[in-house]
Amino acid sequence: MKTKKQPNVLLTGQLFDGYDDEYQCPILDEDRVVDELDEKMSDGGVIVDYHGCDLFPERWFDIVFVLRTDNTQLYTRLEARGYTGKKLQDNVQCEIFQTIYEEAMEAYSKEIVHQLPSNTPEDMEHNLEQIVHWTEQWMKDHN
Questions:
Q1: Which of 3, 27, 63, 142 is most buried, judging by how many CB atoms fall within 10 Å of its CB?
Q2: Max Cα distance, the chain (Å)
Q3: Which segments cross the bilayer (predicted)?
């Protein structure tokens, strides 16, 4: 795994195609994102943190973790980040309907997709331990 902090590819490469006023965020140019990351992903050992998965090729990943959160806690977290209106409601609905998990199950082999609860600090610590353990094993197996 890469240990040094990598620059945010989305910002440094200007890989967006406009701005969504309703959601108050940039609109990704998904083709450019995939093109930009493809070479970086070919050697493996890269962790991708993103809130969706259907744009990334299955060949990039050995394992996929989907973090899940209780809707009440999610609402509180997003509200604290300043999310309001449609953006807040859509994010909570995505969690209710398991949208990201379902996308992951459709986009990748079911054997590599894992749900992790992310409700409490203890959950988050346990998730971190699991991911570190998996990462260390991956490094042993691939070096």
A1: 63
A2: 48
A3: none
pTM: 0.83
**Both tokens of residue 60?**
């990039």
1 falls within a domain: no
What tens digit of pLDDT does each residue of 105-129 get?
999 999 999 999 999 999 999 999 9
The boundaries of the domain holding residue 30 are 6-42
Indicate the pairing of strand 25-28 with strand 16-20. Answer: antiparallel
Count the Cβ atoms, other than its own, within 10 Å of residue 25. Answer: 11
Written as six digits, the tokens of 121 are: 């600090």
By the 8 A CB rule, do 45 and 32 touch?
A: no
Beta bridge partners of 16: 28
